[in-house]
Fold each of these.
Amino acid sequence: MSIIKTIMKHPLIAPSVLSADFSHFADAVADIDASGAEWVHLDVMDGKFVPNLTFGPKLAADLRSQSAAVFDVHLMVYEPEHLAAAFAHAGADYITFHAEAVVHAHRLLMVIRQLGKKAGISLVPSTPVSGIAELLPFADLVLVMTVDPGFGGQELIPSCLEKIKTLARIREQRKYGYVISVDGGIHESTAALVREAGADVLVTGSAFFNAPDKAALVRRLKGMDP
Ligand code: DX5
Ligand code: ZN
């Protein structure tokens, strides 16, 4: 069992404001804080890497004063190197970009760390773990997408779960330090599969914002309540 899994009996929960009411972001962050979820997941989309558009660093900066939660920025953009510093200055804690969106991924991981932030690398469902093998020693987080990114409310692709197991095994064997985060289609019926595969962080969008009792949902996603 890895050091991270030994310390964290239950995964952390990272609700995505993508599924919030965009006219009430501050309320969304307050709901996340009140629910017992530890992270706020911010999905940044450019309309090119993915067929949708969301928001930029100003939203993170404006929300930063509203919450002490970890801000987990997920960049679904081409040329993410142009946005890393802006999100660092906006108060992001983790900055994750896609391996498929950049040529010099190692350089960008180093730049994010030099900015004083945790550096994450993400994979779309069609990219294998072997595609980022050279980057794993330099990543603080690996984000496994379990849907094709761009929209909330999609069904989890079960074959992606194998990648979580592979990442956990490699981390154990090589003593790497990354956190394994999983994003897409996570709700009460799929969370156990994702936890059992070895995820440390569960991102949840539509399930969280549709839940009438968000604290109860968070406990169930963590596997604390049946
Ligand atoms: C998808 C985003 C996800 C999304 C998850 O492109 O990266 O973070 O918000 O939403 P659900 O949980 O509804 O699949
Ligand atoms: Zn995301």
Amino acid sequence: MASIACIGVGNMGGGMALNLVKAGHRVLAFDLAAAALERVVAGGAEAAASAQSAAGAADVIITMLPAGAHVRAAYEGGLFAAARPDALLIDCSTIDVATARTLGEAAAARGLAMVDAPVSGGTAAADAGTLTFMVGGPAAAFAAAQPILAAMGKAVIHAGGPGTGQAAKICNNMILGATMIATAEAFVLAEKLGLDAQTFFDISSKASGQSWSMTSYCPVPGPVPTAPSNRDYQGGFAAALMLKDLKLACEAAQGVGASVPMGAEAESLYQLFVNNGGAFTDFSGIIRLLRGPDPA
Ligand code: NAD
């Protein structure tokens, strides 16, 4: 069993760290927020005094931080220097492809093994250990990371070289954002055309309009009882996080000259939804924006 430094044990990283404890690993946790740290310590992790002290005592360093700037500051500001020469570095945060590549290259230049390994699945999957990891990095680093990630997820997939895990994540979520909007607007149109929502679901979910957005997170309450739409769009995948991923996708597309008109439209609609107070509701709640104001 390994000694694992978990840097960032918030909503996602907390559940992930606890699954590593359950798998028998020694977890050295650090977070700037005391409450986040207390949760994992209560579950069997050890609190470290700093990110560097955790990293210096670990075989594996896992970061789960908000965004690229935090990740870059953490590695360049101390983790690279503190890491043991044979340590494995795993960044599970969702960040921009360019930063992930830069950090992968910086690690390689220091002789350190590093992968970018963003996740699909929200806090429920993090707690249950059923995340999907999309991993970018050298084959040997992937092979070393695989058993560690498998303790926190149901699928661990090698996407290619440094940054390709992040590329897979944002391309996947660009599809997700666009299909959710398309699904939501189709339900609104069906409703206005006098078609019952359950009947439309029964037809479209078995026809070519079917997608994960329809069959797992159906934006109207009823057809999929576990979908956030049945809980007034609470829980699930926050629209603010969808917007973050769409921004990353559009930035990356600009960087390589790719045309992403649907992704760009999805970004502007989620921006509008977030500006109108939807940030913390599930991303399927965008159906409210598309439906428009209730007639007085
Ligand atoms: P969060 O804000 O709950 O957790 C981030 C944690 O990092 C916080 O506890 C914060 O205190 C800590 N932190 C920030 N800077 C730090 C530093 N320098 N050193 C130590 N700790 C530091 O966010 P989250 O929901 O856990 O998301 C983490 C990452 O996972 C993000 O990149 C997010 O996009 C991605 N993600 C989230 C979800 C989700 O459903 N929440 C799903 C998939 C991916």
